[in-house]
Amino acid sequence: MKDVVGSPQSVLVLGGTSEIALATVRRLISRRARTVWLAGRPSPALESAARQLRDLGAETLTVPFDALAPEAHEVTLGKVFAEGDIDLVLLAFGVLGVQARDETDPPAAVRVAQTNYTGAVSAALICANAMRRQGHGSLVVLSSAAAGRVRRTDFIHASAKAGLDAFAQGLGDALRRTGVHVMVVRPGFVRTKLTAGLRPAPLATTPQAVAEAIEEGLRRRAAIIWAPAALRLTTAARRLLPRRAP
């Protein structure tokens, strides 16, 4: 299945309960998407997400996937690609962690880093190589605006996202002229269940708004998008400021 730019027929979501990814998939189903794979840890939430997408008319399947088990990624994701071409992969898993706790709990900090970076590198490379073999496809990697200027208040999570951001840009360079497109998405504070109870940052946004930006970025085959776009300027300005504790 060759994808029309910005309008894929088949989608694989890594992080199948991600509110941003699901909002994106709903938009794509309203256009052209007909087959969706939701990869994540088995849970009622994953099954509920699959049912909701089926109700929208997409054939939706779930597949067990754990970012912290990279040794199983090749077999798990290989089975998905063996069923047919995948036009779009949304790499949308990640954890925030609890900065104050994780600073004094190295194993917890390592879990944040392994989930957000190591697990993502493993999954991204496997999917990228599969799409290179099929000769087409887009890989969308959810990074974070926090990767642009790591702060005292979230440096464990943000440093892992910064590593992922740099990796995804390099992967995009490596895949030029292969038919595979890589797009890095840098959302700011997104109002989701994951951020419930946290004080919204300036320019806070919603999963639906990020999904709209992702769809537009796919149409343009953009390499990097910010959501909202104004974050690009504010982050650039913050980089010029001297480092200090907030």
UniProtKB/TrEMBL annotation:
Q: Which InterPro entries match?
A: SDR_fam (IPR002347)
> Which Pfam families is this protein grouped with?
adh_short
Q: What keywords are assigned to this protein?
A: Oxidoreductase
Family assignment from sequence similarity: Belongs to the short-chain dehydrogenases/reductases (SDR) family.
Q: What is this protein called?
A: SDR family NAD(P)-dependent oxidoreductase
User: Which organism's genome codes for this protein?
Assistant: Streptomyces niphimycinicus
